[in-house]
Amino acid sequence: MSSIIATGSCHQSSRLEIYWEETRLVLTANVHGLRSEEVMVQIRDRRVFLMIGESHECYGTSFEMPQNVNLNKAKTFIYNGVLTVTMPKLKQQPKKNIRAPVVSDAHGSRSRFFC
């Protein structure tokens, strides 16, 4: 199941969408008619920067990514005029119960917190 997080445009002909799929976050942009050399994706400081340029003009935008995506495993490709950037969700670690040790005083008796 996917849910759209954001839509917009960073270029007169490039529609952007960011949405969740079951195991990943997906960013798509229409880059029809542009060469791959005219499209740049950069990931830095939890932000995805998208630059779409034509021979003498360049348009850009950036999006802050949520903490639960793995930016180190992002994949980018262009197919049929659509740029797609995918970032897998981080696996949630099961919550652990943390046990604090009981501290004894120098005489071996337990400290009292309540009277």
Automatic annotation (TrEMBL):
<protein>
    <recommendedName>
        <fullName>SHSP domain-containing protein</fullName>
    </recommendedName>
</protein>
<dbReference type="InterPro" id="IPR008978">
    <property type="entry name" value="HSP20-like_chaperone"/>
</dbReference>
<dbReference type="InterPro" id="IPR031107">
    <property type="entry name" value="Small_HSP"/>
</dbReference>
<feature type="domain" description="SHSP">
    <location>
        <begin position="7"/>
        <end position="105"/>
    </location>
</feature>
<keyword id="KW-0346">Stress response</keyword>
<dbReference type="InterPro" id="IPR002068">
    <property type="entry name" value="A-crystallin/Hsp20_dom"/>
</dbReference>
<comment type="similarity">
    <text>Belongs to the small heat shock protein (HSP20) family.</text>
</comment>
<dbReference type="Pfam" id="PF00011">
    <property type="entry name" value="HSP20"/>
</dbReference>
